[in-house]
Design goal:
Largest sheet: none
Number of domains: 1
Number of strands: 0
Helix content: 55-70%
Structural class: mainly alpha
Number of helices: 4
Order of helices and strands: HHHH
Length: about 60
Amino acid sequence: MPTGFLICAHRWNFTDTAFDGDAWLDWVRRAEPLIPPGTETDTFSTSRLFAATYPEAVAVA
């Protein structure tokens, strides 16, 4: 499973290549309630970021 998260983390860095149906768009949608924009310094945690990518990380693993 750590490999799945590493692959997802690598993909997270390429925001300029997002396309319709891209998993990255789902991650952003899932992350916003967990880490609301503008509150990152107070609400960010690795666990919350992992939660946003979890379905795809499991699928990759």
